[in-house]
Amino acid sequence: MSAPRGQGPFEVLRGFPLGKIMNSAYGAPMTQAARRQPPRDDPAKHVDDALPAPLVWTFDGPFERCLDDIEDTLRRAIVMVGDVSRIALLIDLSLPALKDRVEAGDALQPAWGRFLERTARYGLPASPRVRHLRVAGPLATLVVAYRN
Q: What is the mean pLDDT of the chain?
C-alpha cells in the first residue's frame, strides 16, 4: 500500500485507533492475550525434522529376476541410508502384470519364499509390506521410507 503524494508513509494510518493491532491473517483486531502469546514456530526452522522423500524404484520382467533386483536395490538403499533400523519397506505388486507373468510360466511361491528368507537376514525392523494394485503397470515397485 503506498501513501498518497505529499504524505509520509505513516500518514495513511492517521485515524486508525491506536492501541489496536490488526491481525493481518484474519483482518480482525488482535486481543491483548493474543499479543502476549509467543509466535508460532516457523516451519522453515524444522526442515531437518521432516521426513525425506521416499526412494522409489520400479521393476518389470520375470518375477524371480524382479525379486533378485529388489533385493540388490534394497542392499544399496541400506548402505545409502546408513542404518537399517530407520527403514520401512513397501512393495507394490501390479496384479495385471503378475497375472501375465503367471500365464507366461513364472512360479511365485518358491521365489517369494527365498526372497523373504534373504531379506530377513538384513535385520529390518519389519518384513516388507506388500500392497496389491489392480492397475496395470510395472510388475513391482519398491518404496523405501527412512528417517534421518
A: 79
